[in-house]
Amino acid sequence: MKNDSLSGYYYKYELYKMQLLSEALKLKKYVFYIKEISYEYDICPEILFSIILIETINRRSFLTRNVECITCKLFPKLMIRKNISIGIAQIKIKTAKKILPNADDHEIMNLLLDDFNNIKICAKLIANYLEIINCSQCSFNTRMLNLVKVYLTGDINSPNYPWINLYKDLLVWSINSNLFNKTFNTYLTLT
């Protein structure tokens, strides 16, 4: 039985890797901004790009993005009450509130709906999380696992759920594959 779950995990992992590769260039309009904002918050652009890319494939359809936007506009109180993840980096309103404590929930929701503001908030969250989990003795994989736990659940001590491990493995693979730099360089070649 354990081999079945392992083969299912690797199937999902390989499938997601192919999706990441096929979706990476679709984020080309954000590469300069990702590079700029990464330097502003002193984080690796590969990490920021990889998180946005993984969140994008989980929310990839044009219809899903439009339904999210319409729902926020028509039912903002519901979206705030349910603390729904919003925008390109799929950030929850209460999570964004941690770095925007003076903004009201409606203002945060509107900021999260704008891709560039969403990326900036994501970068600030990553910078904050990397400070929290700073562990010089930890391996890169452990730091990335802790980053994923904090990013997805808000709790570094959350259990290693299979979906957390899958996200971490995809994040590490994307970073180690230099998908940001490859996308950035491809975009420069095409323009």
Brief account:
It contains 11 helices and 2 strands; from the N terminus they run H-H-H-H-H-E-E-H-H-H-H-H-H. It is mainly alpha-helical.
Describe this structure in words.
The chain is mostly helical and 191 residues long. The protein has one domain. It is 74% helix and 2% strand. It has eleven helices and two strands; from the N terminus they run H-H-H-H-H-E-E-H-H-H-H-H-H. A two-stranded antiparallel sheet has the order 1-2. A hairpin with a 4-residue loop joins strand 1 and strand 2. The longest helix is centred in the first third of the chain and has 23 residues. It is globular, with a radius of gyration of 17 Å. The model has no long low-confidence stretch (mean pLDDT 89).
